[in-house]
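Q: What does the assembly look like in three dimensions?
Context provided by user:
Components: two
Sequences:
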Amino acid sequence: MKDHIKHFKTILDDKGVLLPEDGIDGYVSGWRGEIGSTPCVLRPTSSQETSQIIAYCAAHNLHLIPQSGNTGMVANSVPDESGEQIVLSTERMNKIIDIDPINKCAHVGAGVRLSALNDALAEYHLSFPIDLGSDPCLGGMVSTNTGGSRYLKYRGVRENLMGVKAVLADHDGTVIDDLKPLHKNNTGLDIKQLFVGTGGLFGIVTEVMVRLSPLPAQSATALLIPRDMDAAAALLIEIEKSCHNYLSAFEGMSHNAMQRALSHNPALTNPFGQDDVPHYAILLELSRSWPEREAEQPLNDVLENILAELWERDNAPLENALIGAPERLWALRHSISEGVQKSGKLFAFDISFKRGDFFRFREAMIERLKTHHPELTLCDFGHLGDGGAHFALVIDRDDTRASVPSYEKTVRNFINDAVVLEFGGSYSAEHGLGRKTEEAYAKYTPDEVKALTHAIKTAIAPIPVGTIKI
Amino acid sequence: MKDHIKHFKTILDDKGVLLPEDGIDGYVSGWRGEIGSTPCVLRPTSSQETSQIIAYCAAHNLHLIPQSGNTGMVANSVPDESGEQIVLSTERMNKIIDIDPINKCAHVGAGVRLSALNDALAEYHLSFPIDLGSDPCLGGMVSTNTGGSRYLKYRGVRENLMGVKAVLADHDGTVIDDLKPLHKNNTGLDIKQLFVGTGGLFGIVTEVMVRLSPLPAQSATALLIPRDMDAAAALLIEIEKSCHNYLSAFEGMSHNAMQRALSHNPALTNPFGQDDVPHYAILLELSRSWPEREAEQPLNDVLENILAELWERDNAPLENALIGAPERLWALRHSISEGVQKSGKLFAFDISFKRGDFFRFREAMIERLKTHHPELTLCDFGHLGDGGAHFALVIDRDDTRASVPSYEKTVRNFINDAVVLEFGGSYSAEHGLGRKTEEAYAKYTPDEVKALTHAIKTAIAPIPVGTIKI
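A: Here is the predicted structure of the complete assembly.
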């Protein structure tokens, strides 16, 4: 390895190679607590340097783990414990290369943080509208194909990606330049799709061209308490009927999830009043891209009228509704992930269904958990508007089963079998693939899809890169 | 061929094999007048039959041309003149298999017409919102990745496709079932992308799962006459600022294009008044998915106010504007394609640019055409909102050059070189690839993209299918 490191220092500048003695804990520790080990961290500043690194690693059988913001949920950006995998961080490719407010696109390095891009876009009243709890970098967002809380309006990375520059995981480290800033371009196989949601399997994204959306200038936000779970599903359809053009979030939060957010974060105001946490709540957001206009009904009034109409119906689907300051209502939503994680040992499932199927699944699983796993508490939340759910199961940290790998495996199979085989859902809605989902990939991917992916990988990018084995 | 036809009759039923004597002109004649020849037309009713056909053709070196609605613009669905290419029509796979109004998706056979799907969706107030002048079938829409007039709101087929079933162009005719009706599903390489916009290169799409949108319940439509071409580009930005959530079409129409539509179709009312055709017009459409509500400003009033504000500015970008019955204004837009085509020999260019670049290109080309090709009249129209343009050049039918292939080639290079090499645009915005664009593909595709496409084709779908050579 010494010789390899020596060679990397000829490719990269002074700051390009970090060794364990330089303090690299942050590069080997993942978001969900996984810890690996690496002989060095490589920090190229260009596609060309990245290409030289890949070609060298290919020639010497070295395994690279690309790392972007390192905020992945499924152990997809940190090395394993072998000590042999080399981290390649894109963090120095962090230039905002161009913002084009007329064409509504931005060209950035893979190491640009989402927050940095959105800060730069604010003066143009534009945004890259993927709304996440974490602050990833753009390259990792492509590799993960992130979705988030406003997916039902803006969709995910795939739908907002115009192009990439990437270094292929082949013997030459071929640089693929597919960066045209065109909204419509229909000239053959869409090569960039190889790099979307594939966790570095086909190579390393170094530059990204994204489509931008107008920054909302008005919003109206409410917490809805549905009469029951059937009503929660029905509310989505009713809200879409009455204000589809404005709908930008429809997020579900279970009693347990809200409870844990409030317990963990005492600074959080309980919007329902002290000690009162409803059985379920939906965070509804409407937004418009233009400022208020005199002749136009204010968005809060639109929302109030719609909710009043739903409330006054016979057999009303709404038990209650609170229209409130957006920041306060979103603070509750955004505190859930951490609150749940801190409340015990978490088994997180990032699943999705046909819209309408989630509550059927949820009801069935609550019954089954009572029988088979009464030690687990369900603290689910997530993206009802697009059929996605974060099905969080928590076990007391003191429970001896909490850290037993075979127990976790049993729980994973128990849930994922029901999601995929019984309810036709997905075991990975938006977190993508990584070490934590590789067993599920092996188990639930149709044979012909696996074979095709494998054949394409072998044909064009045969060098092993990233955490995913296929 | 006799033996082959005999064999096809063992795979398919009575109506499954059509011979020239059965009257098959419709299957060998393309939308833009190209005429080929075929020994037979195969009409499978299932993926299984399609698979058997592909496997047989692979074993016997027979070349299949998949044909869906046969409305392609670039000779991508008809056989060539060799008489050796066999047409495989998907027209009997025309069942609407499922409509799910809760999940907002539809599962259909590849041979279902867009109009048939939308007719069936109307009762649910839903639509598959790709708005086209023609009426293609869903399988061909996937293979072409069609865009259309409301792309700036709904995007194209790629962004509204949930899944496909397809038969791979390999020796076994492997059936790929990638039909999960999930809005969010992030479980590895997105296999369906192989079949989007690739004209059958990788195989034949037999079933399609699409995402649906609410049918608009209100719309407001206007024709805008910009002060000049700079103002036309600026108007888009202004309109987006003031009503992005409502914007569903922003279509440009040149004087010559409108003139030819009106001349060709005497039933068409000239919305500008008899004999008065402006230098340029923009068809602007706003829409909402819900019916009018008492407290809400009507959409026509929203539109009027926005236009009034633009009109009253110093140096107003608007010379004039007409708010009118949507059907009448769209009739003009929809008559252009045929009007232009019938007015002479047409050289059609389906091009796109960064938004904002089209008018720079247009101005430059008007000057160059005067010098180098005064015999050509520019009758452009298209999708300003997404940077797309149908750059239609017409030459008098009596001009001796009109049907000389080398002349057409000169014109194609003259335009496409400027589009791609000089202005960084695309030679195919939304019509996809076919015989008419294969020279452009060869000339303008980056070598590494060509090599990757070729390597993937060779690895997974080595049997030649379709009109595209790569």
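Follow-up: The domain at 344-432 of chain A is CATH 3.30.70.2740 (Alpha-Beta Plaits).
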